[in-house]
Design a protein that fits this description.
- This protein is of the alpha/beta class and 293 residues long.
- The strands form three sheets. Strands 5-6-7-3-8-9 form a six-stranded mixed β-sheet, sandwiched between helices. The chain has a four-stranded antiparallel β-sheet with strand order 11-12-10-13, with no helix packed on it.
- 33% of the residues lie in helices and 30% in strands.
- The chain folds into two domains: 214 residues, P-loop containing nucleotide triphosphate hydrolases (Rossmann fold), CATH 3.40.50.300; 54 residues, no CATH class.
- The protein contains ten helices and 13 strands.
- The radius of gyration is 22 Å and the shape is globular.
Length: 293
């Protein structure tokens, strides 16, 4: 598959702060890649390098076969950063026309607005939009020039559930038409809902790079859920939480845990064992990395 963006042994420092530490990563045509990591993990730095907004301290960054610093190369991508500012006096349709005018090949205006649930706002001034509507517009503008690659940094921050799902549908539609997407998110269910591939970053390094299911398997965490009044101390429990009358135990060895539970003679019922969610995998990966630092 064609590689649209590539980082090769990339390191980026901000003074004494090491934001990225010898990161290598390929984004291939047709992929929808979710980039996960806690604040300060290096996600936005990596995105800024691909978008040509920063230069690496060492290593190589390639974009669409050229340099991210080349303005002509950058016309092939669409970007929505975490924060955007749009002129309040312009109408939604006017800002879409303005951005589209910068590209020789451009998305249809009505199609673009409808894809992100903005069709009814075409004559509305930007200053009169809600925060969520402005965010949807900022994301829509990343698709205005029929990009080969769209980079979205926390695209649904501040959106309610309905608006978030509208954006998800727009992103999925672009991807199903052959588009390539790299997105970061703090909403881990968003990555599970959208991404085929997940890259987990922590302390400036890539901790995992695989499918959602494979990342769960890498961690090996299982959730053991049961109903009990109380539990004795059990081996291999990584975390415990109570939901009403149910107790959820996180463990990498559910068989041993259940055997020891039975041996303890503790009464329980409703035993369930299932794989971890991506959120549980993410927390386990990043906590392991912290412990090794």
């Amino acid at each position: 598959m064609t590689v649209l963006a590539r980082a090769i042994e990339v390191t980026r420092r901000y003074g004494d702060v090491l934001a990225l530490d010898r990161v290598s990563l390929d984004i291939r045509a047709g992929e929808l890649v979710g980039l996960l990591g806690p604040n300060g993990a290096g996600k936005s730095t990596l995105i800024n390098l691909f978008a040509g907004l920063r230069r690496p301290t060492s290593g190589t960054v390639e974009l669409l076969g050229g340099s991210p610093q080349d303005p002509v190369t950058r016309r092939g991508i669409g970007v929505t950063p975490q924060e955007t500012g749009l002129p309040d006096a312009l109408r939604v349709g006017e800002i879409v026309d303005f951005v589209r005018a910068h590209f020789a090949e451009r998305a249809g205006k009505e199609e673009l607005l409808d894809r992100f649930g903005l069709g009814d706002l075409v004559r509305r001034q930007i200053g009169g939009l809600s925060g969520g509507q402005k965010r949807r517009l900022a994301v829509a503008l990343a698709f205005a020039g029929k990009p080969r690659l769209v980079i979205l940094d926390e695209p649904t921050t501040g959106l309610d559930v309905e608006a978030r799902r509208t954006l998800w549908d727009g992103i999925r539609s672009f991807h199903e038409d052959g588009g390539t997407v790299l997105l970061t998110s703090h909403y881990l269910e968003e990555i599970e809902a959208l991404a085929q591939r997940v890259v987990v970053v922590g302390h400036g390094r890539v901790l995992a790079d695989d499918t959602v299911r494979a990342v769960r398997d890498i961690v090996g965490v299982r959730r053991v859920s049961l109903t009990a009044a109380d539990l004795p101390e059990l081996p291999g429990v990584l975390g415990t939480e109570r939901e009403d009358d149910r107790i959820n135990l996180m463990t990498t060895d559910p068989d041993r845990l259940v055997v020891e539970l039975v041996r303890s003679g503790t009464p329980f019922s409703g035993l369930e064992i299932r794989p971890s969610t991506l959120e549980e995998a993410f927390l386990a990966l990043t906590s392991k990395e912290t412990a090794n630092v």
